[in-house]
Design a protein that fits this description.
The chain is an alpha/beta fold and 302 residues long. It is 34% helix and 29% strand. The protein has helices at residues 41-48, 70-76, 92-102, 109-119, 135-147, 165-178, 191-197, 215-221, 237-240, 267-278, 292-300, and strands at residues 3-12, 15-25, 30-34, 56-61, 64-65, 77-80, 153-157, 183-188, 200-205, 208-213, 226-231, 246-253, 256-261, 282-287. The chain is elongated. Bound molecules: adenosine-5'-diphosphate and magnesium ion.
Amino acid sequence: MSVLVKDLSKQYGTQLALDNVSLEIIKGEVVGLLGPNGAGKSTLMKILSCFIPPTSGTASINGFDVISDSMEVRKLVGYLPENNPLYTDMFVREYLHFIAGIHKLGKNASGRIDELIEMTGLAIEVNKKIGALSKGYRQRVGLAQALMHNPEVLILDEPTSGLDPNQLVDIRALIKSLGKEKTVILSTHIMQEVEAICDRAIIINKGRIVADDSTLNIKQKQKNNVLEVQFEEPVKADSLRQIKGVKNLREISSRHWLIEYHEKENLRKNLMQWAMNKDLNIASLQQKSLSMEEAFQELTKG
Ligand code: ADP
Ligand code: MG
């Protein structure tokens, strides 16, 4: 077991930021921590990387407790904080030497820094000051920093926020390749990101875990009472409303509708009966599957 969290809570004053969270992450998994702003993602990540202590409960990495064995945990974890705070006045290599010093790499520092520059694609920008780098390259520096001591677990807090579409693709690819060798926990509020990079998603809302599964299962488990129907003839909303069980309609075109229905009704049957009576032909009829985004909205509303 790489990461083990049990009954973890964090209270800031009167604010309960994490509410009895438990989870397990096995070695090599790439897990997306999803949740709206204020859900508690950063709080959980800060506890796992020994930046703040929990109020109650336990968290450990490879069996080392984040409080009683924090020195061991720090060796095992690489952490990219939210907003990636960097020393903008430092040159890239200078900054990486500074980080190498913190990890006491000694005479191995230069070799390791060269490796990281290569691995994170920093070579062409390496002679610039961090302040002069684009956001995408700053994220590479942040990743190099997190990887310095070759940690087994990478904790990346919103690693792609604020990147343009090209940078986004590059950084995702880099994270994905890192995920082949390491356990990765990343936070994001972009569902497609989790689908693109992660094996599994943990959705948190108001400090609690509301889903913990593969993205596919999360989508499938969300109840979804919407049928997508296409007719061969144009159909009017008033007419569709006559069908027993119809709750809401969305018109894509006069022949193509999304019908939300009351859970207990067999809308498929009612609709076919209705179409037969009206002498209408159904070209296609299917349960509309939820996107990850819609599943997320369902799970985190209220
Ligand atoms: P997320 O990263 O999911 O946006 P956070 O973990 O940053 O969420 O925050 C969870 C909740 O805890 C929020 O309501 C936030 O306002 C609150 N919070 C976070 N840090 C502090 C702090 N240092 N003091 C007081 N409240 C905090
Ligand atoms: Mg956060």
